[in-house]
Every structure is written in structure tokens, then in C-alpha cells.
Write a sequence for this structure.
């Protein structure tokens, strides 16, 4: 039964994305940017994140609604409603600030502040990384980790399909971590995220017909960060491995800024592009590397 519901979420994402594309085209929600090969300017419709958000929230509603099996009423998110409400509000805040950033040129400081609030909302709901007996230390680490991953995914949104592709691979890894650790929340939550992104990805691969924008990439970063924090309780090292590419991208950008270089989106992508790699090859290389690290991490976690 759950398999059918998860497949329904995938079909919803597959159906909603072209509708969002039509809305973006009709209302002029487009952006001019440098093409993936760096040779020309191109226009792309935004609002791709809305398609993922709509599918995700619908999936939460479908699987969070009580279902009946063999005469018994089942609540799949029983015991996790506080965490779920925190995630929903956090996702709304992150998505809203990203959309505002796309269309109203929100200042970076204001966007960071909204993401900070979203991270605190998640922490307040009970989702936390535990590294110390001191709750204040744990709170600080949790909030910073979420903010870093959101930033990392915004950096990855420079090559068609890369941000969504890495999110799909990472989420798949979190699901298998949940299977091995029997963490029920992720067993339900991760497939919802996975299917919501997977349906959109078919429209976002090179040459993309619709892009995420700041709202979509921030939303993906937030959803992946939540899974990373949740899975850190039982598998801290594999959990970090699931976000290897995003953390690598943001670490390289930070190091570049630290040593006086120009901070720009995804220096790894720029390096590969300057070496003449096709956008699809960059996508395959980085998503493949994330998948490889995922497999290695899972093989050591049993």
C-alpha cells in the first residue's frame, strides 16, 4: 500500500512540474543566465522549487492522513507530529525567502536570517545533533549544520540537474541508513522527499526546461539537512558522507574566500566546465562521486 502511495507522489511531481512551467512562462517568471557551456545567455523559467514543494507537502498530507488496514486505523507519522510540523514550517520559510530572493533581490543578510529562523524552528521541534551533554552546544551545531547544507545546495545550482540529482542520491542514502537503523521517521520521510525530487528531475536535466532558482535549491538543501540531522543520531559518519559533494563544494568556496579568491557558485563545477566537460558529464561525475561515497559509507554501516 505504501509503495503505491510513494509512486503516487512521484506521478504528482511528474504532473505538477509542467503545470508550474506553464505558469512561469505565462506570467514571465523567467531568468536570464549564462548557459551551461558558458557560450551564451539563455532564459529559463523559474519556480521549479514550487513543483517539488507541492509534491512534498501533498505527500506529507497523504501519508500523514490516517489510513485503514485490516480494520485498523494507522497513522504513519504517529509520535513524530511535533518534528513534522517543525519541518513543514521550516520548509515554508526557506522556500518563501528563496522565492523573494529570486524576484525581489532580497539581501543576502535577510535571506540568511530567515534560514536561521527556519533552522531554529527545526531545532525547537526536537530535531537535533547530539555532540555534547550541553544542549546549547548541540543547538549551535544543529543550526550551523543546517545553514551550511542549505548554502551548499544553493551553490550546486549552477549545472542543470546537479542540485536535484545530488539531493536524490543523498536522500536515497538516508533511506538505506534508516533501513539499517530502523529509524521509522526517515523510512517514511525520505521516500516522500525522494519521489518529490525525482519527478522534477526529469525536467531539470540538461537541457533543462525549468530550473530551481534560489527557492528550490534552498528547499532541497533544507530537506536534505533535516535528514542529515535525524540520521546523525545512529550514524554520524555515514550521515556526513551522504552530503559529501555539497560539503565539498561549500568548503572549497570558503577556502577560496579565505585565501583572497573570489567566492562564486560551485568552484568545482566551474573548474570542470573550464576543462571542457559537457554539462551532462559534470552531472554524471559529481552525482556519480556522491553515489560512490554513499555506497562506501553504507558498506561500513551495518
Amino acid at each position: 500500500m505504501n509503495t503505491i502511495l510513494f509512486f503516487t507522489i512521484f506521478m504528482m511531481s511528474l504532473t505538477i512540474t509542467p503545470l508550474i512551467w506553464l505558469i512561469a512562462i505565462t506570467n514571465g517568471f523567467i531568468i536570464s543566465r549564462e548557459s551551461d557551456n558558458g557560450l551564451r545567455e539563455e532564459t529559463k523559467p523559474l519556480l521549479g522549487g514550487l513543483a517539488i514543494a507541492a509534491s512534498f507537502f501533498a505527500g506529507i498530507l497523504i501519508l500523514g492522513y490516517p489510513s485503514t488496514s485490516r480494520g485498523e486505523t494507522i497513522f504513519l507519522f504517529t509520535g513524530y507530529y511535533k518534528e513534522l510540523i517543525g519541518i513543514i514550517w521550516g520548509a515554508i520559510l526557506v522556500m518563501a525567502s528563496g522565492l523573494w530572493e529570486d524576484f525581489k533581490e532580497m539581501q543576502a543578510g535577510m535571506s540568511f536570517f530567515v534560514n536561521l529562523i527556519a533552522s531554529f524552528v527545526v531545532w525547537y521541534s526536537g530535531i537535533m545533533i547530539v555532540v555534547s551533554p550541553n544542549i546549547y552546544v548541540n543547538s549551535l551545531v544543529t543550526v550551523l549544520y543546517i545553514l551550511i547544507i542549505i548554502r551548499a545546495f544553493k551553490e550546486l545550482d549552477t549545472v542543470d540537474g546537479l542540485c536535484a540529482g545530488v539531493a536524490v542520491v543523498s536522500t536515497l542514502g538516508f533511506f538505506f541508513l534508516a533501513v539499517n537503523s530502523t529509524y521509522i521517521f526517515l523510512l517514511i520521510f525520505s521516500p516522500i522527499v525522494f519521489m518529490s525530487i525525482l519527478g522534477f528531475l526529469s525536467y531539470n536535466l540538461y537541457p533543462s526546461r525549468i530550473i530551481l532558482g534560489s527557492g528550490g535549491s534552498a528547499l532541497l538543501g533544507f530537506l536534505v539537512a533535516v535528514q542529515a540531522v535525524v540520521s546523525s543520531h545512529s550514524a554520524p559518519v555515514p550521515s556526513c558522507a551522504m552530503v559529501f559533494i555539497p560539503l565539498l563544494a561549500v568548503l572549497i568556496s570558503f577556502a577560496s574566500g579565505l585565501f583572497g579568491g573570489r567566492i562564486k557558485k560551485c568552484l568545482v563545477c566551474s573548474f570542470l566546465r573550464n576543462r571542457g566537460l559537457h554539462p551532462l558529464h559534470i552531472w554524471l561525475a559529481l552525482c556519480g562521486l556522491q553515489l560512490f561515497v554513499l555506497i562506501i559509507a553504507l558498506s561500513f554501516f551495518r
Residues 2-27+44-300 form one domain. Strands lie at 30-34, 41-45, 67-69, 72-74.
